[in-house]
Structures are given as C-alpha cells and as structure tokens.
Amino acid sequence: MNMCKDKSTSCKVLAIVSGKGGSGKTMLTSTIASILDESGKSVLLIDADFGTAGLTYYLGLNEVSNISVGLTNIFSNKKSTSLDSEDIIENLNSYKNTSFIGVGDHRRYKESGGQNFFHEYFDDFLTIIKEKNIFDYIVIDCRGGIDEESITVCRSADDIIIVAETDTTSFQATQYLVDVLYDNGISDKITGFFINKVFDDPSVIMRNGAVSFKCRYLSSIPFDLDAIKSFIVGEIPSISGTFSSQIWNGLCKINSLNDIKKPIMKPLKSNQFSIVSFKDVKINIGSYLLSIVLFLSIFMILISLFMSNDDLYSNLWPFFLVSLILSIFTSSDKVKKKIGSYYIKLLSIFKS
Asked: Which residues form the AAA domain (predicted)?
C-alpha cells in the first residue's frame, strides 16, 4: 500500500471552513472523509453548522436513518456533565469506517441557550471522544462564513482547511475569514486552502490566494457536473472521479495527514480545467483510449495498403471492422465512461 508518509497514531481534528455559504464546503467535507476512509482510517464526521445543517440534511437522504438527534441533544442541556456521544453517533451506509454526528434539533439549541454551553464544553466533548481511541480523524463541517460556533470549533481543531471559490465575492469573504482567525489567535492552525468550482486556469487565484490568505495552496477542484449530481441526490462523489482526485492530491500536501494512500490520478495541470470542467474524467479517459486504438487500426490499414499483396482484402477486413466499431463507440459517452472506469480500476489495482 502506498502512503504519503510514515504512520501517525494520534487522533487529529480537521475543521473545514469557508468565507461564505455555497462554496461546496459540505460536499468537500464528506469527500475528505471518504478519502480517509478509503485509506483505511476510522473517521468521525461532525456537522457543526447550526445555521443550515447542510451536512446533516445531505447525509440524511441516503447515508443515515435518523437526523433528529445530534449535537443539540448534548449542548442544549446545561445540566449535562457526561457529554456522552454514543447515543448520537450514526453509522454511514456508503463508508467502511466512518461515523457521523449531525446537528439535531435547531430549535432546542437556540431556545435553551445552547451556544454558551457549546463554547464552554465543546473542547471537552472532543477530548472525551479522542480518549475512547476509536477514531483516527475527526472532520468537522463548519458554517459558511464565520460565527462563534465556528471559531470555537477552530480553536479545538488541529488543522483548519479553507474552501474558497474563484469569484471576487468569495475571495473577499475568505480574506475576512482569515482576518477573524488571526484576530482570535488561531491563524497558526490554518493548513491551506482549496479553490472549488474552477472553470478555467486557476493560476492567478492560486498565487493571489497564497498571499492574501497567508497559507499554502492545496489544490484546485474543477466544476464537476457528476459530483454535483451525486450531491443533489444525496450520494457521495465517486472516489475515482476528478472532484475527489483533486481533493485527494491536495490532502497529500498536509503534513498531519501523513498516513493516507496516494491518489489514483495525478493532479490536473492549470490548462486542463477548461477541458474537464463539464465532463467526467472517465469519459475523457475513454475517449483517449478509443482514439489511440482507432489511430492504430487506421495506421495498420495504411501500412497494409502500402505493402499491398495478393491477399490484401483478407488481411484488411479485421482492421476495417475494428475501425467501424470504434467509430460508433466514440459517439457514445456511456461507452467511453465505462471504458474509462475499467481503466481507473485497473490502474488502482496496479498501484496497490
């Protein structure tokens, strides 16, 4: 098994934040958990977005059976002393080693003044979970923008990962987020930033972001229609898709994530984003493979014509047939996607 670095044993807490809502942070958070899970790590996903509970509703579509319980069941009861998490942890259907704690009932949290209790005891809550020695990683989805709960989560985290978009509004909101983290004395925990929903060459935003956000650039993630379709219906993006692969390559730059497998696919080059933004990478791979075989088939036909002999037609008909079939296949995205999927699976087996 290929690893990024040597294994580390302590449980690490990752806080995923963004300057504003709608950045794709929730889908990215669930994919980070999926990548860690794929690497054989035990993960606890926590939704700490008390404003929209986006991760809770997303996973509630297919992954968990009960989203009525969660953090609010603990942090709305000021008399609670045990902070027991066992009753609110849910298993996730599509993951091997990942569990989930949702938000729970928003109204209970607000009406009971749970904010104060959350700020006072959240770090103790995480400490208790860590001491149970069940999880390798705790990944927390914070609210889009920055609020008091998110600051509390960031104080308790080992690493803060930022999700930004390429537009001016998101860039300015992310700068404000970083300023708030600096003002609260937790900027040293900022590990790096992802650029999400990239349509074109991200080189400029990569450079400007590294200066303005004062942290490392991790990776750019193309606008991936297949990943978005998965999100809409409550499915986890494919681990072998472009969306996940770009996140995976970014995670391998983080020093504390030193025991995850290497990604199957190499990171995209800056000039490739406009090509893959609206198309599944599997379709692109399938197209390339079919094109190569078609080229070889036509090349063999030309060679045979050049080296003409008495039995020309009996030698050429297999190449004509292959060329005809390949020409038909190249017009079908479904066939190209299937071929691309097989190629990625074979590549994964080979690398393992």
From this structure: 12-178
